[in-house]
Structures are given as C-alpha cells and as structure tokens.
Write a structure and sequence with these properties.
The chain folds into three domains: 130 residues, no CATH class; 135 residues, Cytochrome c-like domain (Cytochrome Bc1 Complex, Chain D, domain 2), CATH 1.10.760.10; 111 residues, Cytochrome c-like domain (Cytochrome Bc1 Complex, Chain D, domain 2), CATH 1.10.760.10. It is globular, with a radius of gyration of 27 Å. The chain contains 20 helices and four strands. It is mainly α and 526 residues long. The strands form two sheets. It has a two-stranded antiparallel sheet with strand order 1-2. A two-stranded antiparallel ribbon has the order 3-4.
C-alpha cells in the first residue's frame, strides 16, 4: 500500500510537470506548476528531514520553475516570455529527484511507512522521521475567521511603529518558540487562540474529547509535564486578556507573563524564552480588546439596541437568590467590571478528584463575546447559553419559569454579542492579503534587530516569516504573483544566512533589497 500510494502521487506530480512543459510556449504553465507544487508537499517534510541539501536545491528549482514559466498577461498586457533553458534545467532537477526517490523499481523495506527519499533509506542512514498528527486531526483556522480587535489599531497607530508589539505578534504566530513535536507540526499560540479568540474547529484525537478542546498537559507535547490525567479543557478566549487576571481555568497564574512562560516551557516543551521574548509576547497580548457591541453601554448596562426580553433578563441577572447565598449572577459576573470578579468559585461543575477534595473552584469567565465561544463551562459540556441557564436553574433549584429562563438567555446573548464578529473578506481583502501584510509587519522588526546586531531574535523571526511566506504563496489564487512571494521568502532567508555568518553588512543590504522588492510587488499581489 505504501509503495502504491507513493508511486501514485509521484506519477501525478510528474504528469503535471509534463503538462507545464507542454503549456510553456503558450505562457500558460503556471497552473500546472502550482498543481505539481501542491503534490510535492506530500514528500516535502520527508525530504527536508532526510536530505536537507536536496530540500534546498529542490526549493530553488521550484522558485525557478515559477519565475521562468512566463505569462500571457491579461488581454495581452503584462505578458512575459518564458525562459525555456532555465525552465528545463529546473524541471529536470525536480523530476529526476522525484522519479529516483518516490517512483523506483522497488522500495527498500522500512520499519516506518514515512515518505523518506529512497536513496537515503537504501543507504541505511539514520533519519529522524518528522512527527505527524493522527488521522482526523484538524488545526486549520476556523471559518469564518474571527475578527481581531487591537487597541492600537483602533486608535490609528500602525503596528510597524511598535516593534516590540510587532515582534510579539510574530511570536504569537510562531511555532519556533515551542519544542517538538509542536514546532515541527506548526503549532503556535494562534493555533488554539485564533486571532485572540478560540479555534472552535481544533481537534486532535487522543487529547481532544470534542472540537475546541485540548489536554495540553498530556504526554504528546511535553512528557515531563504529563500529569497522567485525561482532562482536556475548553480553549479560553484571550480577548481583553489584560482585564481577565488571574490566568488558567482555575486562576493558578497571577500574571500573564508567568502564564505565557508556562505555556512555552511547561506545556509545549520549548526552550526558556528570553526576557525580550516575554516582554514582546505580553505587550502584544495586552493589546487584545473585546469585540465592540452596540447593545452594551458604560458600566455594562444594556442600551436601547437590546430587545425587551434582554432587558427583562437584565433585571433577573441582578436579582439575588436565597439558594445562591443571597448572591445574583451579577455578583460574580460584575457588569461594571467586564462581567467578571477575578475570583475563583466552586459552583459544582467539577467532579471531585478524590474524596474530600476542594479542587472544584474555577476562575470566573467574562461573558463578553460569549455568544461566539460555545460550548460552555471549563470542559465544554454545555452547548448553548440556554443550557447554561437551565443548568444553574436546576443546580440551585432557582424555580425560574420558562419565560424567565428565556429572558435570561436573551440577556446573555445580548451581553455576549458583537457588531462585527468575523473578518470581512472580498475580492481585494483576501485571506492571503491579510496573511501577507501580517508577515511583512513581523519582518519590519528587523529595522530594530539588525542595527542592534541581535542575531538570536532576528534569526527566530526569519525562521518563522520566511517559511510562512513560502507556505502562504503556495495557496495564492493569484498565480502570476507567486514567484514574487517566493522571491521575497528567498531574500529573507538570505538575510538570515548573512546574520548566521555575522556578516551584518550583507544582512543590511539584503534587508534593504527585501523592502524595495516588497514595495515594488505589493500592489500586484492582490
């Protein structure tokens, strides 16, 4: 089965390259090259792990295929002739390697059915197989994409003028700060906390009991921190995180800095972050704001935009109940304090770990934006806000009527609502444009790091951004501009090579070239 599937992918990849050659004279080879490049991803990780030099050589060959294929332009405008000689040379580099390594006459017997190059396996070399997630795992961004509200942006400040925040933004999107397997799998802070919110679609079999939940202290990411308990929790939103201390579902971390450090080192097995990294990461997260909601005014009071049912529910929310020791819902979810009290309470939603255990207290969550963070409770056990109201009514025997439960639900939905919860896209404002602008903003911090001769943090940034630029280019719908993005990724990688060699003059020159190239090609990319 391994041999059949590997050959099938290799044969289709080679067929698409042949189709690109046939279309070269017509200036229409780009689509076939793009299809071949997508198929190459099936082998890319194995090649990178087992044959790094070939991986680099093949990467340059793919760039050359794109840049030498030419273009018919649009209605004759912008047409570029193909460079047949360069195209054939790059085509031979890719085709010969794929045929020799993934479509040989026989495959050498192997213990693990990983797509490693046949020449390396046959030579008996020791290869660290890249980690993979089990089938049915999903880590892609959820759709629709949550809107990100940043305090500085709402005030008209450009992130490129905030290098510490921009570097923290990069770290939030970087898998490089974690240890393996998270790093190799491309898992970053933003994988779970998608655009400061929650990735409701994230699911990893074995450590997720349902989408949007994960057991981060299992053996998968860091066996040293494995607590030997199967206890996945619902991923919390980080919107307005500067107001929501303490941190952790049970409030075990007083500061966001300590919480962030534990995520990097304790949960995901990364190296100890530098003080600058923690400063930057915290500076970025402190800019996360709640979603604007016209149904809420100052002090957490409903406005005239709210429905009559929600207004009736507001009164219920503030009503003291004897069954709750004379407290109201608003006693913990304080409206004038972003609907939280920064304390932990045991409401009976956590089963005791052992007889007599007092471990059921959980940090009070905010209700802002809650309409978009279902399911609810620490374990995601309640699917709707209506079920949360029913749970409290049953648990504390409040005796609410059906109408009162409906009104209280309407109030929670109004408090948890938002005017624009999702990122708006159109033909110009595309997901690629969003990603490209984010990555080039990250790169802008080199204006700070290169003059400071900060090799450690500059290299971390380049390792993240150059790879992500190339990955985003592979998904571009504008095939004409793909080669431009790959070229930018290559220039940035060369900045990194110069920094590694301590050649700061060359690094500055290549960085200037990157900025000039970016300015030149930015408009036509979209």
């Amino acid at each position: 089965m391994f041999a059949a599937v590997t050959r099938a992918v290799a044969d289709l990849l080679l067929e698409r390259l042949g189709a690109a050659r046939s279309a070269l004279e017509d200036g229409d080879a780009s689509s076939a090259i793009a299809e071949a490049r997508e198929l190459y991803r099936a082998f890319e990780d194995g090649i990178a792990a087992a044959d790094p030099e070939a991986s680099r050589r093949l990467g340059l060959a793919w760039l050359t295929l794109n840049s030498s294929a030419g273009s018919r332009g649009l209605l004759g405008a912008g047409a570029r002739p193909a460079d047949a000689a360069r195209f054939e040379e790059a085509l031979a580099t890719v085709s010969e390697y794929i045929a020799a390594n993934f479509d040989p006459e026989t495959f050498t017997p192997r213990e693990r059915m990983a797509p490693l190059p046949e020449t390396v396996v046959a030579a008996g070399g020791e290869v660290a197989v890249p980690p993979v997630l089990p089938p049915a795992a999903r880590m892609a961004d959820q759709e629709p994409l949550p809107r990100l509200v940043l305090n500085f942006e709402e005030q008209g400040i450009d992130e490129t003028d905030l290098p510490l925040v921009a570097f923290g933004d990069m770290l939030f999107d970087s898998a490089q700060i974690f240890g393996d397997p998270a790093r190799s799998l491309g898992i970053a802070c933003s994988t779970c906390h998608n655009r400061s919110d929650v990735n409701r679609d994230l699911f990893i079999p074995g450590i997720s009991h349902q989408p949007g939940a994960v057991d981060v202290d299992s053996a998968l990411f860091n066996h040293v921190s494995n607590d030997l308990r199967d206890d996945p929790i619902d991923i919390p939103s980080l919107r307005g995180v500067r107001y929501t201390a303490p941190y952790g579902r049970d409030g075990r971390f007083a500061s966001l800095r300590d919480f962030s450090r534990n995520v990097i080192v304790g949960e995901f097995g990364g190296s100890e972050p530098t003080p600058f990294m923690l400063d930057a990461l915290v500076a970025y997260m402190l800019e996360f704001d709640f979603l604007p909601n016209s149904k809420l005014g100052s002090g957490g009071l409903l406005t005239d935009s709210a429905s009559p049912a929600a207004r009736r529910g507001e009164a219920l929310f503030r009503r003291p109940f004897a069954q709750m020791d004379g407290r109201a819902c608003a006693s913990c979810h304080v409206p004038s304090s972003n609907f939280l009290d920064r304390q932990a309470h045991d409401i009976g939603s956590v089963s005791a770990a052992y007889a007599g255990a007092q471990s059921g207290a959980l940090d009070t969550p905010t209700l802002l934006g809650a309409r978009f963070t279902a399911p609810y409770f620490h374990d995601g056990s309640l699917p709707t806000l209506a079920s949360v109201v029913d749970w409290f009514d049953d648990r504390y025997e409040l005796g609410m009527t059906e109408g009162e439960r409906s009104d209280l639900t309407a109030y929670l939905e109004a408090v948890g609502d938002a005017d624009e919860p999702y990122e708006p896209f159109d033909e110009y404002n595309t997901p690629f444009k969003l990603a490209f602008e984010e990555l080039t903003t990250f790169a802008s911090t080199l204006d700070l790091l290169i003059p400071r001769r900060d090799a450690e943090h500059a290299s971390l940034l380049i390792d993240t951004v150059a790879a992500d630029l190339a990955a985003d280019a592979s998904a571009m719908s504008n095939l004409e501009a793909k080669s431009d993005v790959y070229a930018l990724a290559t220039i940035l990688a060369e900045v990194g090579e110069a920094i590694s060699a301590a050649d700061w003059t060359a690094a500055e020159a290549r960085w200037s070239e990157f900025k000039e190239t970016q300015a030149d090609v930015a408009e036509r990319m979209f």
